[in-house]
Amino acid sequence: MKLEEIIKAVTVNELIGSADRDITGIQIDSRLVGPGHLFVAIKGTQTDGHAYIQKAIENGACGIVCEQLPEEIRPEVTYIRLADTEGAVGKLATAFYGDPTSKLDLIGVTGTNGKTTIATLLYKMFRQFGYKVGLLSTVCNYIDDEAIPADHTTPDPITLNRLLGRMADEGCKYAFMEVSSHAIAQRRIAGLRFAGGIFTNITRDHLDYHKTFENYLKAKKAFFDNLPKSAFALTNLDDKNGKVMVQNTKARIAAYSLRTLCDFKGKVLEDGFDGMLLDINNREVNVRFIGRFNASNLLAVYGAACLLGKPSEEVLIALSTLCPVAGRFDALRSRRGYTAIVDYAHTPDALVNVLNAIHEVLRGQGRVITVVGAGGNRDKGKRPLMAQEAVKQSDKVIITSDNPRFEDPQDIINDMLAGLDKDDMKKVLSIVDRKEAIRTACMLAQPQDVVLIAGKGHENYQEIKGVKHHFDDKEIVNGIFADE
Ligand SMILES: CC(=O)N[C@H]1[C@@H](OP(=O)(O)OP(=O)(O)OC[C@H]2O[C@@H](n3ccc(=O)[nH]c3=O)[C@H](O)[C@@H]2O)O[C@H](CO)[C@@H](O)[C@@H]1O[C@H](C)C(=O)N[C@@H](C)C(=O)N[C@H](CCC(=O)O)C(=O)O
Ligand SMILES: Nc1ncnc2c1ncn2[C@@H]1O[C@H](COP(=O)(O)OP(=O)(O)OP(=O)(O)O)[C@@H](O)[C@H]1O
Known about the structure:
The chain is an alpha/beta fold.
């Protein structure tokens, strides 16, 4: 593609060299640059991409987008100076990858919890309806049935547009994506035209990055502020910031709730460890999901599907066939009679919700044994809160490692224990080895009990001192069940 076509997408302050060049790739990382690429220098959180301009040229870049020109200007390179490269890169990538969101309907899901669940269920549902569909999610990205490993909730703008470009080229009619607050703040989604946005909820999280809850809220809200008029903005009225989230949007507002009468109103009529009976807009549907928060997620899925024009009857039928997303309230039954639930509740609020859901179903007929940890090198403030919430609603708590990254797992456990008093400690064991912790919880369980394995057991690995080790909570539980 010609450079002049790409840079039409942004306001250029200064152009040095020819814009009549063929561009074969676009990069924000000099290490990925190849011959004929356009390199965009971004001031990041760790380093300044401007320091790598010469490296990018050595690797073959023929165009440089920057905020400050380098001292050495080379005749064989075109330099494009503009005011804000971070804000521009998404727009440049969108232009380079053929404006994918003009060819498919992109729906973004944002909020502290529920993004993966809702985006994945919409992807599954629309494939059931017979469409080719894309998914961009923390667990894995999909271009229809092709799985592409994910290393972010929302990828960097180049990867994001490349994936969306492939989805459009391969005939996907819809793409569902998780939109993280980091991605909004860093404008990874700039240049994309959304057909819809869904808000789940907002509670304390990611304050290591956003610093204050207000900044975190502002980042999420910016997503809705920037939706186009043609899009829908589907919000959750059960969250206290549900209305605030959409107050400045130009998009068509719709709402879902388990409490208030609105566009998509639901109610839990019956619940058990095998599923729930829901009432959605006065029609009953059996679903294979557990917990009120999942009823809320399913309402969002229902609402979004209806807003995308699917008949409500068809959507209800599809809802009844959907299965839980791996590791999201995954209930496993032991031959000894107890239930193990693997859930990636990794915020205090998610932990409260999961424990509430377990108690709603247990109705005092069994005990709850919780295995919980907290991730390393992230928001330390939530560690004592996780321990406190676990203790409040469990009969026994085993505090253990949970993706410690570069930190010493024992230090993280100590931060969690610091939130507990002497009485709390009577219920608590700490076992650093996560496998051993799960095994001990299962050993302690009696028939009727529930073992909750919570915390972000980072999908299928644990990063310990920077090295990733395969680790899958569900695999461990199935191994224990096999030995029982
Ligand atoms: C703190 C943070 O969010 N950082 C993100 C940010 O990188 P950065 O600003 O820190 O980049 P930097 O390291 O300072 O480098 C600046 C620039 O120099 C470039 N560079 C750097 C070195 C070099 O040799 N050559 C070179 O060109 C870099 O490619 C970059 O363009 O922009 C990058 C591109 O989009 C992201 O990959 C990176 O994510 C880091 C790896 C990360 O871990 N982010 C997490 C916190 C994150 O984004 N999480 C959210 C949600 C998680 C959740 O909900 O649980 C997500 O969406 O995944
Ligand atoms: N609507 C909800 N309200 C509160 N908690 C929820 C909700 N949906 C899911 N959870 C809890 O959060 C956990 C993570 O769910 P999910 O992966 O869907 O969220 P997420 O927003 O994608 O988070 P992440 O991107 O960090 O994985 C679930 O296992 C459950 O414990």
